[in-house]
Amino acid sequence: MTSGPVGVASPESRVDGAARLPKKPGPTPFTIVTTLGAVVMTVVTARAVGFSFEGLIENLTRPNSVVEGLLNPDFSQIWSERSRAAFIETLQLAVLGTVAGASVALPLALWSTRVGNPNTFLRSIVRIFNNIVRAIPDLLWALIFVSAVGIGALSGLLALFFFSLAVTTKLTSDVLDGIDPGPVEAANASGAGLTQMLRTAVVPQILPSYSSFVLYNFELNLRSSAVIGLVGAGGIGERIEFFRSRGEWEEMWGLVVMFFLVVMIIEAFSVTLRRRLV
Amino acid sequence: MRTDLSRGAPVRATDLSAKDWPQLPKPPRQVFKWVATTIIAAIVLWSFIGLDAKWSRLLDAPADLYTLGRLMFSQMEASEIRPLIGKMWESISIAWMGTLIAAIFAVPLSFFAAENLVGRPVAWIIRQVLNLLRAIPEIIIALAFIPVFGLTPMAGVLAIGVGSIGTLGKLFYEIIEGIERGPIEATDAVGASRSQRLRWGVLPQVTPELTSFILYRFEVNIRASAILGVLGVGGIGTDLTQAIRFKEWGTAGLALIIVVVGTIAVDTVSGLVRRRIVRGPGASSDGGSFEAHEAELIAESVND
Amino acid sequence: MIRFSNASVTYPGGVQAMRDLDLTIEPGEFVVIVGLSGAGKSTLIRAVNGLVPLTSGQLQVNERDVTTLNRSGMRDLRSEVGMIFQGFNLVDRTTVLKNVLMGRLHEAPTWRTLLGLYSKADVHLAAQALDRVEIIDKAYVRASNLSGGQRQRVGIARALAQEPSIILADEPVASLDPPTSHVVMRYLQQIGRELGITVIVNLHFLDLATAYADRIIGLRDGALVFDGPGSECDADVFESIYGRSLTADDTMAKQAAL
Fold first, then answer.
1. Which chains have 3+ CB pairs within 8 A of A?
2. I need a labelling partner for C49 at 20 to 30 A (CA). Which of B45, B86, C7, C209 fits?
């Protein structure tokens, strides 16, 4: 995987006796083990998912109504009252989820680093919490909240809150590793408290990256807010699920295509803004 | 403690007021900042007022969550651990095969999206394809594959495969565009063909990074495959959804724990391998650098 | 007043950076510490404000026993001791004024800091401090847009904004060219004389030390090997500090001429 070219015979021809190539280094044990691991993993997982090329080709070439629907999307649905309301709800969910998640993510990220949290024990608690939140994907959060709080936008918001928390915390704590320690030393030497030091010496350094992550997170949330509706957590996903359950593929794809066009346009704005920030 | 500055402060050893009041220059106007802040505040306010959420329920949410947690984590049965771990393995398998398929398509696509390898128009077109694939969540793609493959893991594999091509391709071409010109020019100089140029000028430089990005995407995809299960294509997500639907809270709790533990475990192993690949042997195991790189890519993300 | 008694510092790796130091510095003195890198200059300076804890012995600063201070006592002490750094340690992305206001953190309530609202009195003090180092016109410029000398002046202003009774300067001119170095040294000297602040400076260059110091302290391997006025610090003394004779590398004037 990481080795150099394999299987090239070392050249026997030499101009003179002096020009002898050093012995070509073989692949390292690490490379051998990981390559072997990858091959074994592939064989085992292929069996687990029932992978076969024949099945793949056969299924993909068989005509089916869903793909036909994708080729003839019906956009008329978009203008219905319900679809429009669902679409706006999706945007609102994404905005609020991002803002709520991002505001909690900043302190959580700070407290997960040595500089922001000198107490080793508390730091590990924060890190464990962050890791657990990060291991649960958006739709699972939605499932959890739909069963705990009930069907509706509030569950969606809570799900997006935790999802945003995970994403922004992770990205922010990664840039925190690379900050300039000088201002931190200066703040400490002036008798500043921990919170004051973080606010004046650390936050200004990461603010551009952090803002950029928040925007990136917003882009992710736009997409997630379409997904969480599939389990009843509000937003456009509920409409998608509605058409899907009725087998109205043309309408479903019309909605999906439209929604992701809008997402891509918003993303383009967001990316321009992010570039300005960094 | 502080010197009273408003009326003729008493002279202290450390008093700074040797001169008259110094005049600060006029603070600059920050139009962009104020406009941006106002717009964002307005959007947030609009969302808050407009969202039809039952806010009163928010106060009950912690109690509801606690009740749910108690139901989930008090009725777990040890006999279910084994089958559920099997299902988690199925999720991992879906993620692995999906990632592999994505990588197989993303590598060649990324070569055609890198401006230092092909012409601008070609790169632009390929990039738009990658962007489109990136914009659509796996679960929506899965909606298209389920009728084709039925409720089988293969529908999940292909959904993840197609969904990851966009992200992997984008990361790949960014890496390729970041490589040194020298080796490419050297292969050109000896009269290499285009495919030889790729093989000897480009691949050796980018293989470690490509590999580690594929592994990273694998980690991301484990989460994706867990949620694909919600649609019923298999893996632990399917069991979790079923358990919640039929209010088998003990099973749901156990499945949730297995998802978290399994995800963290795979993250850890894969993370170690990635670090070793990127930094070479003898690298310290303290994390950060790869993720920091990823974060940097996102922060500077170029989407064209 | 600063008084080290029998003070030692040993780092976790086993390096002894301070050996049985006995030293008293009176209020208002301008002291320069010289010695090879690794002789313990930085350790001495950082011991004064508790950034480096003593491993044994006593240290009194302004009637406080530094070795027994709790967290808040330590912050009180540090608020009375300004510090200037070799690398300036400014937050590059923020304005000069905000950097200087960092010197007021100890006096500001945390909620105000969090909101970025500084009191009028604090802003005035920061303005005065900036005025003293004659850089007030740059108050709203980003720190990253300043030259090295200007940045160090902002560093001095930040220390001054603390209204300190002691200023510690750790190699303040090591990243600067000779003319700028003299400017910075003159500001430090002026501050000491006019405001009565005790100034302790680490320097590498001997000619700078003798030009500005009231008192020179020589360190070698963490131990005190010289303590006297700048005028007494001749080539022989120098050899005892550096363990070798003077070379062009050790004086700024000669190095600049190279």
1. B, C
2. C209
Structure tokens, C45: 């300076």
Show the domain range for C251. Answer: 2-257
pLDDT digits (tens, 9 = 90+) for B181-229: 677 677 777 777 767 777 776 777 778 888 888 998 999 899 899 889 8
Domain ranges of chain B: 72-299
In this structure, what token pair is assigned to residue B110?
Answer: 């990324």
**Which stretches of A150-248 are DSSP H helices?**
153-176, 181-189, 194-197, 203-227, 236-245
Which chain A residue lies closest to C155 (C-alpha atoms)?
A186
Of C98 and A28, more confident: C98
Interchain contact B85–A (C-beta under 8 A):
no
CA distance B172 to B169: 5
Q: Alpha-carbon Rg of chain C, whole angstroms?
A: 18
A69-277 CATH: 1.10.3720.10
Nearest-CA distance A136 → chain B (Å): 6
If DSSP codes are grouped into helix, strand and coil, which group holds residue C35? coil
Q: Does A28 touch chain B (CB under 8 A)?
A: yes
User: CA of B175 to nearest chain C CA: how many angstroms apart?
Assistant: 28
Q: Could you give the C-alpha distances from B102 to B106, B129, B236, in angstroms and in order? A: 6, 14, 22
Token reading at B105: 């398509």
Inter-axis angle of helices B120-135 and A249-277, to 10 degrees?
A: 120
In the predicted structure, residue A250 carries a pLDDT above the cut 80: yes
The CATH number of whichever domain residue C146 belongs to comes to 3.40.50.300
The contacts found for B74-79 with CB under 8 angstroms, 24 or more apart, are B74/B250, B75/B249, B75/B250, B75/B253, B76/B250, B76/B251, B76/B253, B76/B254, B76/B257, B77/B250, B77/B251, B77/B254
Cα dist from B123 to B188, B213, C206, whole Å:
20, 21, 61
- CB A244 to CB B89 under 8 A? no
What are chain C's partners, defined as 3 or more CB pairs within 8 angstroms? A, B
Enumerate the domain spans of chain A. 29-61, 69-277
In angstroms, the CA C50 to CA C73 distance is 11
pLDDT digits (tens, 9 = 90+) for A100-139: 999 999 999 999 999 999 999 999 999 999 999 988 888 9
How many Å apart are CA B281 and CA A32, to the nearest integer? 13
Nearest alpha-carbon partner for C62 in C38, C81, C86:
C81
Q: How far apart are the first and last CA of chain B?
A: 58
Q: Which of residues 26-65 of B touch C (CB under 8 A)?
A: 27-28
**C-alpha span between B274 and B95 (Å, rounded):** 17
- Other CB atoms within a 10 A radius of the CB of residue B284 amount to 8
Given an 8 Å threshold on Cβ–Cβ distance, is C136 in contact with B13? no
Amino acid at B209: E
Q: Are A185 and C89 in contact (CB under 8 A)?
A: yes
CA angle B99, B103, B109 (to 5 degrees): 145
Tell me the count of A-B CB pairs closer than 8 A: 226
Q: Tell me, what's the ipTM?
A: 0.91
Structure tokens at C33: 């510490």
CB neighbour list of residue C137: distance below 8 Å, 6 or more residues apart: B25
Of B2, B5, B14, nearest to C195 by CB-CB distance is B14
- Are the C-beta atoms of A167 and A141 separated by less than 8 Å? no
**In the numeric block, which tokens belong to residue C171?**
């190699």
Which CATH superfamily includes the segment(s) B72-299?
Answer: MetI-like (1.10.3720.10)
The two three-digit tokens of residue B299, written as one number: 């922060």
Q: Is B244 helix (H, G, I), strand (E, B) or coil?
A: helix
The CA distances from residue C102 to A107, A201, C139, C142, in Å, are: 20, 8, 13, 15
